[in-house]
């Protein structure tokens, strides 16, 4: 793959930069809820308007075909776009509809389903949440027990899902439900789209130690869902779920692959922190050879990973769907992101110990929160241990 940018790609970069200059005027961050965690939905009015403008330009799902509201962007255009958004720290957020639901519908949806749901993803009419995990089925996802019983043209759903990010703000659900207990546990699972407004759906937020609540428990009590909302075949939801998890894992790794770009745009954030903290008289921690060595290692690792992600995206564009190799990226990206945050916290020393109150500035408090949040990255979308199991079995072909 050629990593250089053509004049057309550079022209596209200027277009993105111009857009960002127009939309992100000095001081824009004051209008943005920087304290919120991942999620377009959670970032408040400013982010919603910003994403609406991306949607109008076909940039929200820039890689998608134009008929679905995208721009059919080449891999390098996506790289340029992601880099510029990251340099600017733009509130592009995390959109489950774009990242997961759309790609799955394009693969497994009927024409009717594509027409009904995809435009509402790209015009932000619908936001989505994922209902996979259950109290007794996390890593062992095929153990789900939320029950779907056929009644004419509907399924009646009963059960409880847990750790559903932003269920209290989403309009639609994509869920795995069990329609049969016959055969292997991966059989008898169906993939369903459910309107959150359907009678019998209720959501209870799970409060975190921070007092925030990005997670919910979602309950189904006799919820009637039309069979036409099944994606793929009844009982074959595991196949759809696996494809979708491939996209989820790729998206998580892309996010952290671009994480380095954010820092590159403003120079290395790690170097800036090392200069700023401790020993203001001696130029900060950056003069310590051990610290310099660790920063250099982290930056090289991040850059190499970003290029590897780019190469794999090139293969994806050639029609290849993310398969078990997405686990390699997911485990590497999330562990790398944790290492980077660990290093930032060490550079800040005691200034990274703040939660709220006096003695800490907003950047320090945000970094502490980001560091804690980074620990969730290697759990969501399947834990690192589960990714290693997948790599062992399905990539390396090792026996059980
Ligand atoms: C930030 C965040 C957001 C999330 N958002 C969502 C969401 O929107 N929707 C949703 O459905 N879920 C969501 N989840 C849930 C997530 O998918 C599960 O937490 C995850 O799959 C692990 O399941 P569990 O919590 O039940 O842990 P368990 O499965 O109980 O695992 C506990 C520990 O045992 C290890 N373990 C389990 N089985 C094995 C094995 N076979 N081999 C080796 N080690 C093993 C795990 O790695 C882990 O360390 C989210 C989680 C987080 C942290």
Give a structural overview.
This protein is an alpha+beta fold and 400 residues long. The protein has 3 domains: 96 residues, Acyl-CoA dehydrogenase/oxidase, N-terminal domain (Butyryl-Coa Dehydrogenase, subunit A, domain 1, Orthogonal Bundle); 108 residues, Butyryl-CoA Dehydrogenase, subunit A, domain 2 (Beta Barrel); 156 residues, Butyryl-CoA Dehydrogenase, subunit A, domain 3 (Up-down Bundle). The protein is built from 12 helices and 8 strands. The strands form 2 sheets. The protein has a 4-stranded mixed beta sheet with strand order 1-4-5-8. A 4-stranded antiparallel beta sheet has the order 2-3-7-6, with no helix packed on it. A hairpin with an 8-residue loop joins strand 6 and strand 7. Helix 10 packs antiparallel against helix 11. The longest helix is centred in the C-terminal third of the chain and has 29 residues. The chain is globular. About 2% of the residues have low confidence.
What name is given to the CATH topology of the largest domain?
Butyryl-CoA Dehydrogenase, subunit A, domain 3
What structural class should be given to the helix and strand makeup? alpha+beta
Listing every helix as H and every strand as E from the N terminus to the C terminus, the arrangement reads HHHHHEEEEEEEEHHHHHHH
The CATH top-level class label of the largest domain: Mainly Alpha
Tally of individual domains: 3
Rg calc: 22 Å
| Mean of residue pLDDT values | 86
Largest β-sheet summary? 4 strands, mixed
**Helical residues, percent:** 40-55%
Q: What count of helical segments does DSSP give?
A: 12
């Amino acid at each position: 793959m050629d990593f250089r940018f053509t004049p057309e790609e550079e022209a596209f970069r200027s277009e993105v930069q111009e857009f960002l200059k127009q939309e992100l005027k000095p001081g824009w961050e004051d209008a943005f809820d920087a304290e919120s965690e991942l999620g377009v939905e959670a970032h408040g009015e400013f982010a919603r308007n910003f994403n609406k403008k991306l949607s109008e330009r076909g940039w929200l799902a820039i890689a998608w075909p134009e008929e679905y509201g995208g721009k059919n962007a080449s891999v390098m255009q996506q790289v340029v776009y992601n880099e510029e958004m990251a340099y600017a720290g733009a509130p592009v957020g995390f959109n489950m509809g774009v990242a997961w639901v759309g790609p799955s519908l394009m693969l497994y949806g009927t024409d009717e389903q594509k027409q009904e749901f995809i435009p509402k993803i790209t015009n932000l009419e619908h936001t989505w949440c994922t209902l996979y995990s259950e109290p007794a089925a996390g890593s062992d996802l095929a153990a789900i027990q939320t029950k779907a019983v056929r009644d004419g043209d509907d399924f009646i759903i009963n059960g409880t899902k847990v750790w559903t990010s932003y269920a209290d703000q989403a309009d639609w659900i994509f869920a795995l439900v069990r329609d049969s207990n016959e055969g292997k546990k991966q059989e008898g699972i169906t993939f369903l789209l459910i309107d959150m407004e359907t009678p019998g759906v209720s959501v209870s937020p799970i409060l975190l130690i921070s007092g925030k609540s990005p997670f919910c428990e979602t309950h189904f009590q006799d919820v009637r869902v039309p069979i036409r909302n099944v994606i793929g075949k009844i009982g074959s939801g595991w196949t759809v779920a696996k494809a979708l998890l491939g996209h989820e894992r790729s998206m998580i790794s892309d996010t952290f692959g671009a994480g380095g770009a954010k820092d590159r745009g403003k120079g290395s954030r790690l170097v800036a922190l090392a200069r700023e903290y401790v020993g203001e008289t001696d130029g900060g921690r950056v003069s310590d050879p051990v610290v310099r060595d660790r920063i250099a290692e982290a930056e090289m690792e991040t850059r190499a990973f970003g290029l590897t992600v780019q190469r794999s995206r090139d293969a994806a564009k050639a029609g290849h769907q993310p398969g078990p190799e997405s686990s390699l990226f997911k485990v590497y990206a999330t562990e790398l992101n944790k290492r980077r945050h660990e290093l930032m916290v060490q550079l800040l020393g005691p200034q990274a110990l703040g939660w709220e109150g006096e003695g800490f500035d907003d950047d320090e408090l945000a970094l502490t929160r980001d560091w804690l949040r980074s620990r969730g990255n290697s759990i969501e979308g399947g834990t690192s241990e589960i990714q290693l199991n997948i790599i062992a079995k399905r990539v390396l072909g090792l026996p059980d």
